[in-house]
Design a protein that fits this description.
Radius of gyration: 15 Å
Shape: globular
Strand content: under 5%
Number of helices: 6
Structural class: mainly alpha
Strand order of the largest sheet: 1-2
Order of helices and strands: HHHHHEEH
Oligomer: single chain
Number of strands: 2
Distance between the termini: 26 Å
Amino acid sequence: MATTKHPNLFDPQVYQDFKARFQRIKADSRPLWGTMNAAQMFAHCTEVQEACNGKALKNTPFFLKLFKGFIKKSVLNDKPYPKSSPTHQQYVINSQKDFDAEKERFLASLDAFVRHTGSTEHTLFGKLSPSERSWAIYKHHSHHLEQFGV
């Protein structure tokens, strides 16, 4: 588990600052690494967010379930994600997406995420406390903000 105090997305100022960073990403924004374009990144982040709100992860390979404790610790630790990290197959977005629609869907999902301030059950990680949910999303999304130079 993390040892430092993390930004809390349930704090209105932290949330507004975080959301403003996403507003800086445009349809023609190019990633500094990886293959996703901006629309795909928004679709990917929406899927991750929804899983932290309790949406089931389908077709999770059995072997991943064996390592769920390790995976949860790596998600919640203080180390940044490596560039081009592997991800659950449900989060992989290969198809082309409409930027405006995906950005709108992402922002609506982010709003729903911060309105749900309680614990939730994650398919792979088990129970996530509010602080774990907040840090998991903040850390993940910050990784993608950095990917797009924001």
